[in-house]
Amino acid sequence: MDLSKMRTPDWILGGCALVLIIDLLFFPWHKIDYNLGPLLGSSGSIKRTAVQSPNAFWGILALLVAIAILVVVVLRRLTTTKLPELPISWSDATFYATIATLALLLLKLIIETSSLGFGSYFGILLAAGMVYGGFASKQADQTAPSGPPTAF
User: Fold this and answer.
1) How many angstroms separate the CA atoms of 107 and 119, rounded?
2) Percent of the chain having pLDDT more than 70?
3) Which regions in the chain score pLDDT beneath 70?
4) Radius of gyration of the chain from Cα atoms?
């Protein structure tokens, strides 16, 4: 595993994807505080992650896409594995997947905006960071020389 093959956009994309996966699984996206009064003597809070209700479907989809993006970045940059040919380049596919991740998370938040926890805000920032990393990686791949230099 040669880490020197990782470029700055790959580090941004892979790092944001990894932290987003942790955010989706463990950080509170919805938090509801309750107090049942002095007679019942019960109070506390309920915390839900992105892959739990409400709208768990969108959080799970975003999680699966983020995992796929992280796997593609690792396979493309850190291994010699040959990925299958796509109708578009892998850079384009990764960039579009980052946009899909951001759109899924925004959809999850638009559907249920009450009682948001810090994980939801952090997750949106991480997904935006993934879009930036995907765009920068796509740009770097387009400007990189495609083969060995030719002599005139």
Assistant:
1) 15
2) 91
3) 39, 145-152
4) 20
